[in-house]
Design goal:
The chain is α+β, with helices and mostly antiparallel strands. The protein contains 5 helices and 11 strands.
Length: 225
């Protein structure tokens, strides 16, 4: 295809070449296959080898795949029938995979217990199972769903920052500081109690985390008023 365009208008400059040659589509076709490509690596390039007219020595021209080159990941749709029957396992998977839903089902009881108390700090911990087949996510996000169905970050993340909020894997535990969110949940009737746990950089890795439903804990530190 490229040979047919030798000397043609498609080879005049970069703009003309990109109009003619859009790029590559690389697909893993085997069952349960994950393929990692690193376009920004030193040895990743698209090379064209050619001869100058009247010169025997071959030369080459390299197109860099990093920098301004556009890269798009496409993932197949996941079938919920592939999820094992409900047990203690909660599955979180990258590549347009699964996220975990978490609700405060006993909110009224929690509100009653917190009457007359000043909330100092609230953390929620998710413990993950060991997994020899897939590496655990190094970091997870905890987000909430608004009344309009929009997914937004908690104010503990947007105001206090990533380091304060947490979510990094430490001894198979993901810990989040949700103090601001928890206070808002107790004091604002319009605040939603539906949270989601999802992977960080889920479009750039193939990790899978299985959380232990029986090992989810909330720690509330408070002062009696």
């Amino acid at each position: 295809m490229l040979i047919d365009e030798t000397g043609g208008s498609a080879m005049v400059d970069d703009v003309a070449f990109l109009e003619f040659f859009k790029g590559f589509y690389v697909e893993a076709t085997a069952s349960n296959t994950i393929l990692y490509l690193n376009p920004t690596a030193d040895k990743s390039r698209f090379s064209i080898y050619y001869h100058e007219v009247g010169i025997d020595t071959a030369v080459s021209f390299d197109f860099e795949l990093g920098g301004d080159a556009a890269r798009i990941n496409l993932f197949n749709k996941k079938d919920t029938n592939d999820i094992p029957p409900a047990g203690n396992e909660i599955f979180i998977q990258s590549m347009s995979g699964y996220k975990a839903e978490f609700d405060f089902t006993n909110l009224e009881n929690i509100q009653t217990e917190c009457i007359g108390k000043a909330i100092n700090r609230v953390t929620i911990d998710f413990e993950a199972f060991e997994n020899s087949d897939y590496p655990l996510h190094e970091k997870l996000y905890l987000v909430r769903e608004t009344n309009e169905g929009t997914i937004v970050f908690l104010t503990d993340f947007t105001i206090e920052g990533d380091e304060h909020f947490g979510g990094d894997l430490n001894n198979n535990i993901y810990s989040f500081n949700i103090t601001r969110y928890f206070v808002q949940l107790l004091t604002n009737d319009q605040y939603t109690n539906k949270l989601y746990v999802l992977p960080v950089l889920g479009s750039a890795n193939a990790n899978r985390t299985i959380l232990n439903k029986s090992k989810i804990s909330i720690n509330i530190i408070y002062t009696e008023i």
